[in-house]
Design brief:
It is a single chain. The protein is α/β, with parallel strands linked by helices. The chain folds into 4 domains: about 210 residues, Thiamin diphosphate (ThDP)-binding fold, Pyr/PP domains (Rossmann fold), CATH 3.40.50; about 140 residues, 3-Layer(aba) Sandwich (Rossmann fold); about 180 residues, Thiamin diphosphate (ThDP)-binding fold, Pyr/PP domains (Rossmann fold, 3-Layer(aba) Sandwich); about 80 residues, Alpha-Beta Plaits, CATH 3.30.70. Helices cover about 35% and strands about 15% of the residues. The strands form 6 sheets. Strands 3-2-4-5-7-6-12 form a 7-stranded mixed beta sheet, sandwiched between helices. Strands 16-15-17-18-20-19 form a 6-stranded parallel beta sheet, with helices on both faces. The chain starts with 11 loop residues before the first strand and ends with a helix. The C terminus is likely disordered.
């Protein structure tokens, strides 16, 4: 049995923080779990889906985050404990429902988990989702370690039921994907009797009294926070500098203080409950020091609110100097790091630590040992063929056409791996929404062809309303659905088009082509590996008006690799490859850029890296000399025959 599912607690196991969040939910007796995949949150639902094989719980990947929270809320209304998880961008998607839900209140414990992505490591932004806590008047908890992630999540369900409202737990990338020993607790029996009490209504009317009641619930949560064990202090009674931190930033502060040996001079107050602020606790500590350093990811969230609290109580605590992201003493953007805090503390206490020396030391240790890496499609990725075909068709058309896209593996179309074809990237589904606008500018003289691309998971998540809008308003756009049969960017989670649920059950897949045709749209299906044929069809469709759809179907290369591999063994005929003398400018390795195609500097020839090449065969079509050869694999042909 998986350690996540084991019934008895009191043992120490190694868990990723996202797994710890899932275990905390299970220890709280959660029975309904829903989310939408997105780094760095995906492992929460994946872990719960794994646990569903051993435990009587329900887990689903929903079509999008809003539906996930709505489905989980239904379970709460029926008296069950439920959880919904997502990344920070997903909280935007749920915000309309969330700000209404917090007026109606809940019944069974309901926890919303947001995993934010400081630095935009795998996101289009580095948004701080904590802003939705004061916006929605809901409690916010921020764990700093995997153990706290488990303990806080478990307690969040109790808090939710105590105040009859949703509770938000916020993690960040560095925590979500960190691992440490965690002491797990016992699991309950998961016995529930769902029932919607029809004598109780869950709605927002009358709005003003409900809004007032929401604030009373928040005040109740604040009273719990004043004595919460998740808020801790270490350091002298009267520190020379007081650091107030939350989440991973607290760990960084702890490291920096210990490295510089400032334990007797610096006090560190960890806030695990960051909204509403535990005001009494904070005021007690603010009195002890005149200079306060606020450390947090991403925005100066606690900094702004603590400054406001200090201003309201200046007669009692005195005038303070506040340092942090908002004051400019720490970087306003990007991930916080121990190095940033070491630099601040080194200057503040006039130590001999210099950030430049630290960087020089690290660089000297790593110089020449870290290979250059760039963003690129995987070997065999169908998106490479798609963007090559788009590039070709737009060149044939010669009207300065362009691609509008959004977030997914295909986002790399903005870089050389996708031939720099994608010119705009925003939220999921926004590529199609933007294209709807471009497609109605013809009356003003706009004559550039517009191609918009979205993946199959994104199509179900957020593109359908824009698709309907394009059909309704007859926007002049060409819509490409890049159907690779996977939510590939976030770990191959199932979606409505894959025929599998999160719990591995077979289900009827939603047919993208049939759905588009049901709207009365012209729909074509193509293969991105057939780059020439796809380019010809795209060129043909660009000459027509109105909304047109082309579904480009080919499995993600990583999925295909697991399911049976690819049909060819690739090679370069050295006698045919002319190298620099070809006149193509090393087109295969410099422009097409598949990782499996490499340049042999000594021979001055292209060659195939047999370790990396998967054998998809599409590169054979790009060499003007026909030097790239593909030979059929015998075992693959045998599989096809079977």
């Amino acid at each position: 049995m998986d350690s996540i599912s084991q019934r008895c607690g009191g043992v120490r196991v190694l868990l990723q923080a996202n797994e710890a969040i899932a275990r905390g939910a299970l220890e709280a007796g959660v029975v309904f779990c829903a989310g939408y995949p997105g780094n760095p949150s995906s492992e929460i639902i994946e872990t719960l889906a794994r646990a569903a094989q051993d435990l009587p719980i329900y887990v689903e990947w929903s079509a999008n985050e809003k539906v996930a929270l709505e489905a989980a809320t239904a379970a709460s209304f029926a008296g069950c404990r439920a959880i919904s998880s997502m990344k920070q961008n997903g909280v935007n998607v749920v915000s309309d429902f969330l700000t209404n839900l917090t007026l109606s209140g809940t019944k069974g414990g309901l926890v919303l988990v947001s995993c934010d992505d400081p630095g935009g490591i795998s996101s289009t932004n580095e948004e701080d989702a904590r802003a939705f806590a004061p916006l929605s008047d809901i409690p916010l908890l921020e764990p700093s370690t995997p153990q706290e992630a488990l303990d806080m999540t478990r307690w969040a369900f109790d808090l939710s039921e105590a105040i009859q409202n949703v509770v938000m737990v916020r993690s960040v990338s560095r925590l979500s994907h960190s691992r440490s020993d965690v002491v797990i607790g016992d699991l309950p029996d998961f016995k529930v009797s769902p029932h919607f009490n029809t004598s109780v209504s869950f709605h927002t009317f009358p709005v003003v009294p409900k809004h007032e009641a929401r604030h009373k619930k928040l005040n109740k949560a604040q009273s719990f926070f004043e004595t919460s064990p998740f808020n801790t202090y270490q350091g002298p009674e009267a520190p020379e500098l007081l650091i107030i931190g939350s989440g991973c930033a607290w760990n960084y502060a702890l490291d920096a203080v210990n490295i510089l040996g400032l334990q007797g001079r610096v006090g560190i107050l960890k806030l695990g409950t960051t909204w509403p602020l535990p005001k009494k606790l904070l005021l007690r500590h603010l009195k002890t020091c005149d200079t306060i350093l606020l450390v947090e990811d991403v925005d100066p969230f606690i900094e702004v609110h603590i400054k406001a609290l200090a201003a309201e109580n200046v007669k009692d605590i005195g005038i303070k100097r506040f340092c942090g992201r908002g004051s400019g003493d720490l970087p306003l953007c990007g991930e916080l790091s121990p190095g940033h805090l070491l630099a601040f503390l080194g200057e503040y206490f006039d130590t001999n630590w210099r950030q430049e020396d630290y960087r020089t030391k690290v660089q000297s240790m790593t110089e020449g040992k870290i290979p250059t890496r760039e963003f690129g499609f995987c070997p065999g990725c169908p998106h490479r063929g798609t963007f090559y075909a788009i590039k070709t068709a737009l060149a044939w058309d010669n009207r300065d056409g362009f691609v509008s896209g959004d977030i997914g593996c295909y986002t790399m179309g903005i870089w050389p791996t996708g031939f720099n074809q994608m010119k705009s990237v925003h939220a999921m589904g926004s590529g199609l929404g933007l294209a709807c606008g471009y497609g109605k500018l013809d009356q003003f003289g706009f004559d550039q062809p517009v191609i918009t691309v979205c993946g199959d998971s994104t199509f179900f998540h957020a593109a359908i309303p824009a698709l309907v809008n394009a059909r309704f308003n007859e926007s002049d756009i060409l819509i490409l659905v890049l159907d690779n049969s996977a939510t590939a960017m976030t770990g191959f989670q199932p979606h409505p088009g894959t025929g599998k649920t999160a719990m591995g059950q077979d289900t009827q897949p939603v047919d993208v082509v049939a759905l588009c045709e049901s709207l009365g749209l012209e729909v074509h299906v193509g293969d991105p590996y057939d780059m020439k044929g796809t380019a010809q069809k795209l060129y043909e469709l660009m000459q027509r008006g109105g909304p047109r759809v082309m579904v480009l179907r080919r499995k993600c290369a990583l999925v295909q690799g697991k399911e049976g591999g690819f049909p060819y063994i690739m090679s370069v005929d050295q006698s045919l490859c002319l190298g620099e003398a070809c006149g193509c400018g090393r087109y295969c390795t410099r422009i097409f850029r598949c990782p499996g195609l490499i340049w042999d500097k000594e021979k001055g020839k292209a060659m195939i890296d047999q370790v990396i090449c998967v054998g998809c065969g599409i590169c054979a079509d790009i060499c003007p000399q026909g030097a790239i050869k593909k030979d059929a694999k015998t075992e693959y042909a045998t599989q096809e025959t079977k």
